[in-house]
Model the fold of this input.
Amino acid sequence: KQEVTQIPAALSVPEGENLVLNCSFTDSAIYNLQWFRQDPGKGLTSLLLIQSSQREQTSGRLNASLDKSSGRSTLYIAASQPGDSATYLCAVMRDTDKLIFGTGTRLQVFP
Amino acid sequence: DVKVTQSSRYLVKRTGEKVFLECVQDMDHENMFWYRQDPGLGLRLIYFSYDVKMKEKGDIPEGYSVSREKKERFSLILESASTNQTSMYLCASSSYMNTEAFFGQGTRLTVV
Done:
């Protein structure tokens, strides 16, 4: 059974820091991996999608990498800002398009 | 932009009521999903649909049913609401080709 773990569970950093969020999964037979952002009481916003054949994806200050063989993905946030404060979720897609989610990393960036 | 719209942000219902949660997407996506999100348990899949009138059970289908009569609309039905169904409900859609999932804004359901 696929399990997805995110470390750390919570992170508090000063504005301007570069930071790395980690996601690990137990079964390397994934179709893709997706990173989301969730603000309190809101839905999920898609940040990056990495197909299983890809190693990384970039969008602005965000870079996500994927290492299927080791069952890991990282989300790198450059020059963090208070507006980046949110919960970040990773999810892996198995066959039939269903996503399995990690429990998230709650990020706070203070001025 | 892809838009997934859930009919209500907040709902309060009484125990035993039949509850309908509606979700509409505007990108002609084949796949649609219903998740619930609870503190400490994360997101769990209730049901999903990969085509009109097609549905499959997710990990926690008990107490729920779904309906997909049109491609753009996916409804979640609580046949007889119970207090343990108090939760945040999230709808999502994706396409066969791209597989990137897009979520609605969520419905916070409270059953009293």
In short: The mean pLDDT of chain B is 94. The interface with chain A takes residues 4, 6, 31, 33, 40, 42-43, 45, 48, 50, 56, 58, 88, 90, 92, 94, 96, 98-106, 108 of chain B (CB under 8 Å). The radius of gyration of chain B is 13 Å.
